[in-house]
Amino acid sequence: APDRSLPARAKTHNYLNGILARVELRVTGADEALMLDADGYVTEGATSNLFFVDDDALCTPSLDGPVLPGITRRVVLDFARQEGIPIRERRFTPDDVRDANEAFLTNSTWELRPVETVDGIEVGDGPVTKLLSRLYDDYVERRHYGGGGGGGDGDSVGDDEN
User: Fold this and answer.
1) pLDDT for residue 4 is more than 70
2) SS3 at position 91
3) Mapping DSSP to helix (H, G, I), strand (E, B) and coil, where does residue 144 land?
4) Vertex 162, ends 155 and 73: CA angle to 5°?
5) Per-residue DSSP letters for 32-85?
6) What is the DSSP letter of 148?
7) Measured between alpha carbons, how far is 140 from 59 in angstroms, rounded to an integer?
8) Is 106 helix (H, G, I), strand (E, B) or coil?
9) Which range is least confidently modeled, 72-76, 107-111, 138-142, 155-159?
10) Using CA atoms, how far apart are residues 142 and 88, in angstroms rounded to an integer?
11) In the chain, pLDDT over 70 holds for what percent of residues?
């Protein structure tokens, strides 16, 4: 669904673009829609940020386009950098996502959710998704529940939640 009406970075609580995309999902049976910009490049999910793995690099649409800079997105990128995972932030086509080795979506509610299929093509999770998911789960446990010995203070990933 092309994003033509509202700037993605404006957290206006106007979810019309996402709602319209999710209405289209009822026909397809998919759980989430990938949003496209006016040029046909993937920007994000209707309610999430998109990541996929290609040739062992973590790929995500750059913030130069109409992409909401999600907190979970930032934390995942911080973990990837700490783990030495190459990161590609740029414009991607739907074919780039369909051809990915693994893919996942992020938002504050879902945290990291593996993408099983894109347009009926199996993608699924893999070692990078599993690693980042485990790191994120541990981070949430430390930060919000005091588990894992971290106690929530002094975390080096995603501390500035502005």
Assistant:
1) no
2) coil
3) helix
4) 70
5) --EEE-TTS-EEEESSSEEEEEETTEEEEE-TTSS----HHHHHHHHHHHHTT-
6) T
7) 23
8) strand
9) 155-159
10) 28
11) 72
- For tokens 């938002």, the residue is 107
Give the lowest-confidence range in 22-26, 57-61, 65-69, 121-125. Answer: 22-26
CATH number of the 48-145 domain: 3.20.10.10
pTM to 2 decimals?
0.78
Which residues are catalytically annotated? 11
State mean pLDDT over 34-39: 91
Report d(CA 140, CA 138) in Å as an integer: 6
Instruction: Work out the average pLDDT over 139-151.
Output: 74
- How big is the CA angle at 90 (ends 140 and 25), to the nearest 5 degrees? 70
Burial label, 124 (beta-carbon count in 10 A; 0-12, 13-18, 19+): middle
Secondary structure letter of residue 87 according to DSSP: E
CB of 104 closer than 8 Å to CB of 129: yes
Domain boundaries, the chain: 48-145
